[in-house]
Amino acid sequence: MDTLIEDNTQDVHWELDEPSSKKFLETLFPDDVLLVNSVEDGSIQDFSLGTIPSLLGHLRKAGHYGSMPKSPSRCASSIKLSQVSDDSVCLGTILVMGWDSFNSSVPLKGAAANRKPDLLLSDIESPNGHDADWRDVIAFGEVKSKKDSKTLKSSYIEAAGKAAFILYAQDGRHAVLCVRILGTHIFFDIFDRGGSISTAGFDIHDHPEVLLHILLGLATASKLHVGFDSSIHVDSSVQHDWQTQRKRMTILRDGVKISVVLDYLIFITDGLHGCGTTVWKARMDSDVDPKGKSVGQKRGRSEGSGKDVVVKDCWIDPLRKYTEGMILNMLNKAGMNGVPKLISEEQVTINHPSPTNHAIVNNSTHLLCTLPLQQQCPIGDLFYYLRVHSRLVMEPVGYLVTSFSCLGELLVAFVDYVTAHQEALEKAHILHRDISLLNLLLVLCQCAFNCEHLPGDVAISLQRPV
Predict the structure, then answer these.
(1) Is the pLDDT of residue 194 over 80?
(2) Which residue from 345, 443, 337 is spatially nearest to 397, judged by alpha carbons?
(3) Which residue pairs, CB below 8 angstroms and at least 24 apart, start in 253-256?
(4) Within 10 A of 402 (CB to CB), how many other CB atoms are there?
(5) Is residue 423 pLDDT above 80, yes or no?
(6) Between residues 93 and 228, which one has the greater pLDDT?
(7) Cα 436 to Cα 33: distance, rounded to the nearest angstrom
């Protein structure tokens, strides 16, 4: 059991009761969205069954869902889950993803530690087959042979650890969904930057409609509803393999929409909750017309088009008086050297997580934690981090100080860091209160590092590559 994961999650974990759990699932995956079409004799029909219980009755009548012996064994609960998810493929084009248990015995690739999720939900059109890694995972499941206080705790900690792996492996993802099968009980969990929410455990024999609701909801959910950033789009006009798919986003600068291409990932945090900082090296590509299409190539390259920039996404505390962008703007106006130049700062907007609510809202952890009871306050004394998704675009492009090429370069950089912090205090009256290696960057310049004024042996030592 990962003690660090346990310590980071226990204070922001909500466990819902049965009525709140059902309300939560109905709000997140409403029947009228899930059941657009249905099945009769294995073919898609243009009518709706209306509710999950109605669909369950139809599956039973059609022979796709039958009774099984009540058994607490791991095998029985796994088969029960597999039977419904596999047979539900008869829903045709409604289901676009499928479950796989291959990695229950083979560690999933793409992480420093070996972890074997019992069940994986991934795009069934993925070209990787059984070579999938953490970047392919849409959702996952943990299976235990019985439900007791020990497996309740251990399965949750294991799920939290795997959720952290997924967030680290998938830049542009902010939440992870999973199921836990403990004996004959199913639990549904969501982990995001503010905390985690778990439904009550439902016996899949006594409440098969809950099982079907969860499986159908996960299989048909949009990318937004399984935790992906809907403001980041894969550029389908450029052919890349699955590992190097080019992504782009649109930023707002001085009232003009500008397309930004993400070239590669510079940094991503490995924490589960909190800021979730992600930094990309990017390029400002072109202006965007009101329909969302790039138009810079048609009317000539706009100001800044083709410029290399840094995009930084993080989940900030909206109650703080000054945002990072506001502070950078103050430093820029004071004529500071040695700090990034702010191009834009904005709060990322999304569609409301409830599919029946079509409002455009700021992306916030507050949205998820208000779904269970449709109220604007926490449940009891439970705590949940209030975080808002913020996006900064800056220049020039820098690299972590840990990538220095020689000792001399590192020493010069630290002199510049000290000078910049002193000038920030003297010119802008700003004192940096939380300095870490992640705040210290190297920016490449045309001039070469020169040690000619130093004694020969010292100069050689300072310029020796490391």
Answers:
(1) yes
(2) 443
(3) 253/304, 253/343, 253/344, 253/393, 256/287, 256/302
(4) 10
(5) yes
(6) 228
(7) 46
